[in-house]
């Protein structure tokens, strides 16, 4: 294709997005659009898969059968999200095995929040309440993003995420209405998860490299700082309701702006974790890589069996 | 005393689901594929659901304000009456599927009979559970075939698991005092009558999967009498941790 | 050597044993004597090593720091016994690696009692009290056995074993003087370990194949049935002292014989376990084999390092 | 308040020994040779012995009839103040020896200083422990050399362990409030002063062992503040099992 032809296709493509039409896998799309989507969707898928681990850590120790069942269901949902996000990504011409390979080799990223340890039961509440809460704020706008398969996957994801978020809040509520030990456990979890949750909404706009292009493609509708403010404004009253304290001495309602002011985020910590030096980065990757490597013989067997079956059917057909 | 037998009988059924569900729960996020992770978690979820139904019923019989969680989390090891099979570890995926398959075949035969129980609650639980268990059995049988008739490596691994787990199959049919008392009243399933069908079904799948049906004279038993393997203690340290550490709280 | 010469050596050898002289590794000995001793000493060594596993199972869960330390010390002693028994065996011209190989391949036996699971803390008491008790009865006569290295090893082993036995009894005593749950735990342990302990003293004399020859070589001083009677006569009053009941309805003091009569032993179970079908045979062997196989790279490294060091020293010497 | 600081200070020392001893205890009978099993058990025994001395002293300070076992077994996870290093798992023998070595070098430097404490009890515990810890350090250093300078495989495995465990070394020198308060009174060791010697000693052994000294800017910490790794919860399920399940009994 000549440069001119490409330019013209690009113009048509951008116009379609501007008209809020969905781009489908078989449609022409600029290479950068494809690559950006592969990066973002797979990163999202990886986050679901890695995100199973910190919560999976408490399945065997859940404090009641009801909570054990709910936690199992939640982790299962996350695996499901991973599944349809990988499927959405595959429509862009990349295989799930390639994507796994990027994850396992450290080339692909996943949400840094999952590199923090889950050390008490209250962390199951805090993750639902705060982490899923922040995720929803990130993800709701994506239900209208331009790439069809991603937008449709997000509709489903968001519905389940808000269920998870309510469930997490309910765990916190139960703790906060419980004994002093339980309430302290809830406070301790808020102390540990608050700042990482704020970081989850991404670097400040000044440091964010992908924002402008993503806005145009409707991969982003608001800046990181706007999303963060929205998260804080929404979450602080919930903490008040729970009767626990957000661990930020600078947090204060600002009548003028109609928002909460808040303290400085420790971006050093953010970048440390992003670069692989968080408390659990190595463990998470080892767990994933071990699962993958120890499962190789199983996947090989399934493949061999499927091929044999194919042949058997073919023989019967002849 | 009738109630004590009924209580014991319910517990002995439910404990199998609890412990197998617990074992499957350990695997979440560590399986060979995303699809098996989803299925395994789903089976765990079904089993924990069934457990809750049974324990809620048992708690009602026991009275005194006891709840499903008291029964699930606050017994001593020897008061758990699950068979040894379900407490065996997730050594590798062949063991996971082998354990599941050897239990599922029994479980479905059992549930089909329990639907006929004169006890309406048990019959209702079974009626609801039988659909789930049919799916479990289909899933595990398929994997037995895939692994048995997959690669030489997978065949060897699957055979190893079946050989090891086989020793625990006979206990499935043991009858406790509660079993016998309840069977005589048409409440319990007479497990001795399931044995022939069980080994026939299991053998057919193994043969189709190109696996050798183990020949074995000696079987290992104990769980139904509350004498468990050394694995059980560790299962309980995790299962009971929260309830033991923070007693008398709501979650 | 001619048959006649051998016969004469044998006569001298038997006379030395009859005079209670010790046979030392460099002395001439009949091949059968060597083989029998390798079999018995290694079986004894293997029992110490495998015996570490059921007790090791409770180290992480010991109920007090004092008990945790005592249990660690006991398991360490057992490893020590293994060490000098293997050393005694090696003087007969067999390597420790060969002996391990016999254990791991299932060719060599170890005491069947270790194929039962340790399911409660009280089992730590019962093993010390009953299993070590039975072991001492078996072993005390071996302090005077004819083969020097074995006899000397047994002197040390027996001293430590009686310490273990007292310690086990003390665990039981504490439980029996404790709460009803604790006493029940002690009773339950006695119920499970009583019969296997009786079986530990070997098959009945009628079934025992090695007795006569072993008597001559002072590898045995009393028959299995005599030892068993001694164990019962010694242990039943201890159970009375503890206030728990030996699980044998036929157990009764016999004024006439001056011994306890006791019920029939389930020899089917005995042979089932001996043949590898006890509750933990497979687990014990897997644990041992895994430890050995997973440790191969460590042993290889130690060997390689020692060789390098040897060469370095040699170079320096030149 | 002085007593509270002293109590906290003792606990933070002793918890390291407890958790490392617990980790070593898991290995009993599963090591690569009989000799390493004996040595590992012996080290565990020393560590548990030291723990008891510290906790007995702490229990006396705490008063109210508390015992060493209350302190050892009946705290919540965040009340344990051991460094993250000692709770790392027995992944393979390289990790076991790496963890031991990285702790032993610190431990000996620390004990040598603690002998000078103005607190007589602590000084006496240190005087007794220093001999044990010298032996531990000799043992683990020897193994670092054997594995580092053994075969290519063992070198790679040992390097892997050192690389992973390195992230936990810096926390050894962190000072809690109790540390600072007690150091200012000449009771506690000023750990910041040990840092240089520590990395020097460790690096020398690693270099002799043909291992690369990791370069690392970021370190992981948390244990001293009671925020542990995910391994800690599982350690506690086993450690506390009996005391939680059978409360208020004597053993």
TrEMBL record, chains A, C:
GO terms for cellular component: cytosol. GO terms for biological process: phenylacetate catabolic process. InterPro entries: Aromatic_CoA_ox/epox (IPR052703), Ferritin-like (IPR012347), Ferritin-like_SF (IPR009078), PaaA (IPR011881), PaaA_PaaC (IPR007814). Its EC number is 1.14.13.149. Coiled coil: none annotated. It comes from the Bacteria. This is 1,2-phenylacetyl-CoA epoxidase subunit A. It comes from Rasiella rasia. The lineage of its organism: Bacteria, Pseudomonadati, Bacteroidota, Flavobacteriia, Flavobacteriales.
Automatic annotation (TrEMBL), chains B, D:
It holds the Pfam family PaaA_PaaC. Transmembrane segments: none annotated. GO terms for cellular component: cytosol. Gene3D superfamilies: 1.20.1260.10. InterPro entries: Aromatic_CoA_ox/epox (IPR052703), Ferritin-like (IPR012347), Ferritin-like_SF (IPR009078), PaaA_PaaC (IPR007814), PaaC (IPR011882). GO terms for biological process: phenylacetate catabolic process. PANTHER family: 1,2-PHENYLACETYL-COA EPOXIDASE, SUBUNIT C, PHENYLACETIC ACID DEGRADATION PROTEIN PAA. This is Phenylacetate-CoA oxygenase subunit PaaC.
């Amino acid at each position: 294709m000549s440069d001119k032809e490409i330019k013209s296709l690009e113009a048509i493509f951008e116009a379609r997005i501007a008209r809020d039409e969905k781009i489908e896998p078989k449609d022409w799309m600029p290479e950068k659009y494809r690559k950006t989507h592969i990066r973002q969707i797979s990163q999202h898928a990886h986050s679901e898969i890695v995100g199973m681990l910190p919560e999976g850590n408490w399945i065997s120790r859940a404090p009641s059968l009801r909570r054990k069942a709910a936690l199992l269901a939640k982790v299962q949902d996350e695996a499901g999200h991973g599944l349809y996000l990988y499927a959405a990504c595959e429509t862009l011409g990349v295989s799930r095995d390639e994507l796994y390979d990027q994850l396992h080799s450290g080339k692909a990223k996943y949400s840094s929040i999952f590199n923090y340890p889950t050390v008490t039961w209250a962390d199951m509440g805090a993750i639902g309440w705060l982490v899923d809460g922040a995720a929803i704020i990130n993800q709701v706008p994506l239900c209208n993003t331009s790439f069809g398969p991603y937008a449709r996957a997000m509709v489903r994801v968001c519905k389940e995420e808000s269920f998870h978020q309510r469930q997490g809040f309910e765990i916190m509520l139960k703790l906060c209405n419980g004994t002093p030990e339980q309430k302290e456990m809830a406070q301790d979890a808020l102390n540990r998860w608050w700042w990482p949750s704020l970081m989850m909404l991404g670097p400040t706009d000044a440091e964010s490299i992908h924002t402008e292009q993503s806005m145009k493609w409707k991969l982003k509708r608001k800046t990181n700082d706007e999303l963060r403010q929205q998260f804080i404004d929404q979450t602080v009253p919930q903490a008040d309701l729970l009767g626990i304290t957000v661990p930020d001495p600078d947090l204060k309602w600002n009548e003028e702006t109609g928002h909460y002011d808040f303290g400085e985020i420790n971006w050093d910590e953010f970048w440390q974790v992003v670069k692989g030096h968080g408390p659990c980065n190595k463990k998470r990757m080892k767990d994933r890589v071990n699962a993958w490597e120890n499962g190789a013989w199983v996947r090989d067997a399934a493949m061999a069996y499927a091929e044999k079956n194919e042949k058997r059917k073919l023989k019967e057909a002849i | 005393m009738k109630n004590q037998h009924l209580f014991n009988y319910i517990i002995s059924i439910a404990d199998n689901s609890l412990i197998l569900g617990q074992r499957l729960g350990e695997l979440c996020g560590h399986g060979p594929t995303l699809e098996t992770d989803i299925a395994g978690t789903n089976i765990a979820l079904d089993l924990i659901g069934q457990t809750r139904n049974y324990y809620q019923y048992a708690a009602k019989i026991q009275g005194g304000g006891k709840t499903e969680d008291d029964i699930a989390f606050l017994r001593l090891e020897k008061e758990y009456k699950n068979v040894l099979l379900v407490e065996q570890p997730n050594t590798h995926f062949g063991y996971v599927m082998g354990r599941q398959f050897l239990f599922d075949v029994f479980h479905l035969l059992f549930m089909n009979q329990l639907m006929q129980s004169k006890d309406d609650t048990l019959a209702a639980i079974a009626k609801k559970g039988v659909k789930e268990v049919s799916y479990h059995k289909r899933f595990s049988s398929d994997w037995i075939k895939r692994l048995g008739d997959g690669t030489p490596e997978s065949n060897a691994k699957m055979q190893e698991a079946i050989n090891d787990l086989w020793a625990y199959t006979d206990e499935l049919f043991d009858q406790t005092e509660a079993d016998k008392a309840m069977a005589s009243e048409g409440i319990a399933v007479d497990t001795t009558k399931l044995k022939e069908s069980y080994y026939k079904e299991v053998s057919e799948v193994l043969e189709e999967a190109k696996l050798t049906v183990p020949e074995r004279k000696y079987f290992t038993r104990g769980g139904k009498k509350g004498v468990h393997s050394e694995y059980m203690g560790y299962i309980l340290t995790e299962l009971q941790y929260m309830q033991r550490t923070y007693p008398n709280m709501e979650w």
